[in-house]
Design brief:
Blueprint (H helix, E strand, L loop, with lengths): L2 E5 L2 H16 L5 E4 L5 H9 L6 E2 L9 H19 L3 E5 L3 H12 L3 E5 L14 H11 L2 E4 L2 H9 L7 E3 L3 H13 L4 H8 L9 E4 L9 H16 L3 E5 L4 H11 L5 E4 L4 H10 L3 E3 L2 H6 L7 E3 L7 H6 L2 E3 L4 H13 L16 H13 L5
Parallel strand pairs: 1-2, 1-4, 2-3, 4-5, 5-6, 6-7, 8-9, 8-11, 9-10, 11-12, 12-13
Helix pairs in contact: 1-2, 1-7, 1-15, 3-4, 4-5, 7-11, 9-10, 9-14
């Protein structure tokens, strides 16, 4: 078997890392190609998980349009597929990298394995462009590694053949188990040095992230205004690693750049983010990955989106959909701060940390006789 794993963003790298480690453990031959859809944040994660890609396309450019990025991925990935002639391409989730890599493989009649298959909002603009990306990948993939029963049911409703679907749990839980061991070695003092925030002097803090395209403009402004109001009425700090995209960064620093109790910092490494999640009161975010990671730390999350493809977290009581409505964010944040049951232990709906084992076993079962 000849296998290539393709990814390009930090969340993809985090979720593919356990599969890479399991492939190494099982001594299965494979190669890794990163597109560089994220650059600095991706490299930090590759270093943390000790991943050394055979190919790095380094495609990220400032203010790059999706069509430009997609066409570059399609062209450069096609060249790799032509030279390497893999039996199987493995992609993750719903990024532009995953969608256009899958299209390139499909055009060459190469089998595609889709990790984290079947997530849906059925609203084609939320999240944008991810919802359409993952639906397209599902039409092209042969193997669908679904993180939950609900995700499998979505695929069955779309007439995906059941024999091609495997419920695995989410590999983010596998990655977190590795990451948790690493952050045990970190102290408040070390984290303070890495972030520039005197964490030991903070009483309590809320962790904030935000980067979705559909929130650019008014959505980000509403989030900032909600934070300004919350620090007026609550004894709380905010720690906000601000995404590098200027559509986010310019607005956030203009609104919050010199506000006491709101600590704006550059994007942080994966272990630092885990440390912040572990030690915060709760999280406000539009991130899909953080919706899956928060339950591992038993943290509630206010999801600044109107729709979520991760409704298991909502049903389990971890996630609360607030959209980008200023008043709703303020109301729910204040309620959580006063809720004495916030730390009550809830069951993680995203798996048992053995997803990578199941995925690699399935790959081996399907291609093991042809290993090289």
């Amino acid at each position: 078997m000849k296998l290539i794993l393709f990814f390009g963003t930090r969340p993809e790298a985090i979720k593919m890392a356990p599969i890479i480690h399991e492939l190494q453990m099982q001594k299965i031959d494979f190669k890794v190609c990163v597109t560089g859809q994220h650059r600095e944040m991706l490299q930090q994660t590759l270093n943390f998980f000790n991943i050394r890609p055979e190919f790095n396309l380094d495609l990220m450019k400032k203010n790059q349009r999706l069509n430009d990025l997609g066409s570059n991925i399609l062209r450069k990935v096609d060249s790799i597929l032509e030279n390497e002639k893999p039996d199987l391409v493995l992609v993750h989730g719903d990024t532009t990298t995953a969608a256009f890599t899958s299209l390139a493989a499909f055009h060459r009649e190469i089998k595609i394995g889709h990790v984290e298959a079947g997530l849906r909002t059925y609203n084609k603009t939320s999240p944008f462009p991810e919802e359409i990306n993952r639906q397209l990948i599902s039409r092209m993939a042969t193997f669908h590694f679904s993180p939950t029963i609900s995700a499998k049911q979505n695929l069955l409703k779309e007439n995906i053949e059941e024999e091609g679907i495997l419920v695995t749990g989410n590999t983010v839980v596998d990655a977190l188990e590795f990451g948790k061991r690493k952050i045990e070695e970190l102290s408040n003092h070390e984290i303070s040095n890495l972030t520039g925030i005197p964490l030991e002097s903070l009483n309590k803090f809320i962790l904030v992230t935000g980067h979705r395209r559909e929130s650019f403009g008014e959505g980000i402004e509403n989030l900032c205004e909600a934070m300004l109001e919350i620090v007026k009425i609550e004894k709380i700090d905010f720690v906000y690693p601000v995404h590098l995209n200027p559509n986010v960064r310019d607005t956030v620093y203009k609104k919050l750049g010199d506000i006491n109790n709101i600590h704006l910092i550059n994007p942080v490494s994966y272990p630092v983010m885990l440390y912040l999640m572990k030690n915060c009161e709760f999280i406000i975010s539009d991130s899909g990955g953080i919706q899956e990671e928060a339950p591992a730390f038993n943290k509630k999350i206010l999801v600044t989106r109107d729709f979520s493809e991760r409704m298991e977290g909502v049903e389990a009581g971890f996630s609360i959909l607030v959209g980008t409505q200023r008043d709703k964010i303020i109301r729910e944040a204040s309620r959580l701060l006063k809720d004495s049951r916030r730390s009550q232990k809830l069951k993680n709906p995203y798996g048992d940390g053995k997803a990578a084992i199941r995925i690699v076993r399935s790959i081996n079962d399907n291609f093991g006789d042809n290993q090289r």
